[in-house]
Description:
- This protein has 3 domains: 15-105, no CATH class; 114-217, Receptor-associated Protein (Up-down Bundle); 220-292.
- 83% of the residues lie in helices and 0% in strands.
- The protein is built from 13 helices and no strands.
Amino acid sequence: MNKKEAVEKTQKKRGPFTSIAEMFASRFPNLKNKLKMADMSESPIEFLEKVVTSTIYISLGLIIVSYLFMITPLTYNLKTDIMMFVAMVIIPLLLIPLVVFFYLMLYPEANRIKRQREMDYEIVFAGRHIVIALKSGMPLFDTFVGASHGYGEVSREFSKLVDNVVLGMPMSQAIREIIKYNPSSYFNRMMMQIANSISSGSDVGGSLESVIDQISKEQIIALKAYSQKLTPVVMFYMVFGIIVPSLGIVLATVIFSVVSGGIIAPPSELLWVAFVLIALIQFIFLGYIESSRPKYLL
């Protein structure tokens, strides 16, 4: 009777796209680890089912919009070039769902990077909190309890560690358990130092302080390296995002005026294409600058 209830419960949870998600699950064997590294509670099947559902709805909307934009060439090619008409109909149907699906599949990786940056931002101050507490004579477990509040994503990891220890897991094992799926190399290095100090019986506070100092120096070096890299990036942005587009439009206008004697002006479609390209270039540059900027609390 219990087995029957479990089967019925499992069947109730199955959605309309669960079978498709199960078929895709074998194509992404590392998805389970990626979800854990991103601290996402869904199973691979549940996540893939959400991705497939979102892909279908988003793709339908984008396909309809693309056909609306192409309605004039579609009507023209239907009368003049049937092969081109078929290609213009089929390509969005094939290309848009693939792009949307693989774009949505990047969400765990994006969440992992976000989580890593949030942890790297707070790691130095959280580590110094633990060092000060240990040097003042506070037990290690109590320092973890104190650090489980006020340090963002780092505090969430300490909360998991505290919960595992309260449930009876040894301290060193609990530390290695949270390191297993943690994306921050700084956090993992700090916690491994604590675990090794516990295993060897050495002073946790002294060894941890040297690790925190080293992490702080590495973050300062990363900030200096970013400032040096920013100068050529800004130069390329000024050239290709501002100077070349503005001068290019002016030059195209002059050429059209000279060639046609002022009768023919640049087509409006050219201006729209230039506008889209300028917006795309600026978006890429600004996105690169923002994504490559280290965010540390020193």
